[in-house]
Amino acid sequence: MALSLPFLNIASRKKRTQMISVDLGSRTTKAVLLERRGEVLALTRYALLDAPIFEKKISPELLGDHLRSVAEALGNTTKYITMSVGLDDAMVRQVELPQIPLDEMRQILKVNHKGYLQQDLPNHVFDCYIIPPRLQSVADKTSESARAGGSAPKLKVLAAAAKQQLVNDFMAATNAAGLIAECMVPGLVGPINTFEQALPEILARETIALVDIGFKHTSVTILDRGELALTRVVNIGGDKLTAGLAESMNISYAEAEGIKVGMAPEVESALQMQVIPLGREIRASLDFFEHQFDRPVSQVYVSGGSARSEMILQMLHSELMTECKTWNSTGFLQLALPGQQAVEVDHIGPQLTVAIGAALSAF
């Protein structure tokens, strides 16, 4: 069951046969077109476009033009669109809430966001997703109930917040582009949704970390036998790795980007100096979980553009002392891609992880 924190509470949401899903990055917009074909989902097209250039904030007009270009690149076959909200634009936290309807949970967060999310969040919209509890024995449930004094146990809930203005701008932009907004989904949940579909057996039985290296930020999510245990956003991304490599080698940013994803051995020491701080931040997240739960993280699965570099994966492995590997985010989808896209999808796949996961929230 895909995590769904859509922010847009559209009462008439129906099962769509096609969906555009957009991961609006700081440098590159990643978009996919998914199509429901009976019991399976098909990836029929994807697009990578240069993100709009903006200083602090993108206007609804500029975003509308960009979304129109995305729809054209995907063939203009549907008007329904979902967008992931960047790691710096949406807060996601795990909280405990009483067993009440979702509408009441949203209202509690709206009234007491400082208490639950440890931040003052005026003019925000809130959404919730009830985390399904891991299967427990009757004895476990009875003892929990006894500890709670016979009262109903609280629910583990994934709570999310985004600025109301951001939601309004997205709605205005989609209208300007002639599209229909279906969902806005925190980017943090994209890799979780995709992994759940791509590697369900590993998700169910192992304790793993999902690391998605974006342009400005990296998300770290620890899943303990299918249950969400920890989420964290690290302010180091592919941009910092590339810029640091360019500076240390006295080459252009574009040259450094090509070398980073390639495997030029002569840049190994310079690249390692950039990867070590990221590795230490990820290791700190793993350590925190392992000390809290007394359970080791067995595997680290890496996505994002930098995951295409075997050298970066090896460096993270050395720093974390835990196996790091990329994974096939399109493996569970029926591939119905045109010509060149069918050839390149294996290489591009790690960059599509968030967009695919956001689409799954809408289907």
- End-to-end separation in angstroms reads 10 Å
Q: What is the top-level CATH class of the largest domain?
A: Alpha Beta
Q: Could you give me the name of the CATH homologous superfamily of the largest domain?
A: ATPase, nucleotide binding domain
Kindly give the count of domains: 2
Shape: globular
Give the amount of beta strand, in percent. 25-35%
How is the biggest beta sheet arranged? 6 strands, mixed
What's the topology here?
Elements lengths: L17 E7 L3 E10 L2 E11 L9 H14 L6 E6 L4 E8 L4 H10 L1 H5 L6 E7 L7 H10 L7 E9 H13 L3 E7 L3 H9 L1 H6 L1 E7 L4 E7 L2 E8 L3 H12 L3 H9 L6 H26 L5 E5 L6 H11 L3 E3 L7 E2 L3 H10 L4 H10 L1
Parallel strand pairs: 1-4, 3-14, 4-8, 9-12, 12-13
Antiparallel strand pairs: 1-2, 2-3, 5-7, 6-7, 9-10, 10-11
